[in-house]
Amino acid sequence: MRRGSDPRATTGGARGWRDALAPGLLLLVVVVAFAAREDGGSDDRPDRSISRYQLALPSAKLSDGLTTYPVTSVERTAATANATVVAGGPAARGFVVSDEMPSIGIAAGGGLGSPALSTERVRRELAGYLALGVGHVRADAPWAQIERTPGVYDWSWPDRWIPEAHALGLDVVVTFAYSPPWVTGAAASDKVGPATAEERDAYAAAAAALVRRYPYVTAIEIWNEPNHAGFWAAPDPAAYADVLRRAHAAIKAVAPGVQILGGVLALPPPGEGVMPVPFLEGMYAAGAHGTFDALAVHPYIGNDESIYWESWNAFDGSGSWFGPAPSVLAVLQANEPGKRIWFTETGDAALAATSPATVPKILDKLREYQSAGWGGPIFWYAWRSIDSYSFVDENMSPRPAYAVFRDYIASVFAGAADRTFDARAGADGAYSAALTGLEPGTTYWVRAYASDGSRTRYGGVWRFTTAH
Asked: In Å, how far are 222, 274, 313 from 265, measured between CA atoms?
């Protein structure tokens, strides 16, 4: 959670493969959005296509006329480990292909699976992540909504966004948190941790049921900011460690490949929780060794940039995030050397109004930590929200930092891309390129691009995997 937020707020592959083919036969046809109308929409939208929503985003039709077109689906039909890519519109000039994707995603704000959002709105929002150029999403699957009656699971909330995100090729990280009324009792808030062994086992069982239902999720966070009193009343590292231990055992029994993210630590305001270093020390003292695959943390810049790099390395006399001991990094490395830290929320409280220039500063610093070998994926909070942290407002209109983040991701993607293919115009006005030399059984990401000689713009990202 970003500082100053309201603690009461609760926040399958691309299109299905064709019939199985004879061994060794493969052709990938990657279809890209058709030519846009002047209003930025597309004329027709086949079921589950996202082309209309990507093209409808304000960023997709640029004021300088340099329009690019994002990939929308992948189909497999025949003979080699090559692909044919088609894009609509006269500005599509080529395609870049990479076998790696920048480990930068969106931490969704505003309750992505909430019934308050229509299915169309959820799809539009997810399409916006692709248009922005990220390949990862983190959002809630609230225990409080899923198990309102003990032992009875209602999957309507996560069903609204997890399968949709997966179908678009996004890697999915789920935050599983907050207690149903039969756990909280008379408490008005769902931000109460499970207190008894029975309640903790119920949480673990529900987490296991979730990854059984969505076996393709990349990772699951065990709670959200349990060291912050706004998200776990009366934070207790030993109690949290017990929840983590039980959840780890239950989840790994049904989905051993799912990454379990522990800690999920915040920097709480004074008097509103336990600081990150003593909380992590308390977790290890209570036996948290081996109960999570990576540690999740939430480093932010505050409204006055007071949580900048220096104070990331010096909070309130109790250590730091990533500096020398005492620090979260030092505690982790002393107890479980080699374990990574995922940055599952980061951002800037003044992002929308005043400080888009902090976007590359924050991302550059966290990518340095990735390069150092201990930093994991980065998730920016948020895509959409009513506060000042997000890239678009509640009406999906971009804020000043939108283009800065989009261009940053595009530059990182282009730097990692090891294949560039020129596009050729067809008689119908569409552009296409044959992507040759792809390896069987390999995942790739592709983006259309356009250049006028001095500027280059990129379309949304899409993932596909060649057959063995």
From this structure: 11, 10, 15
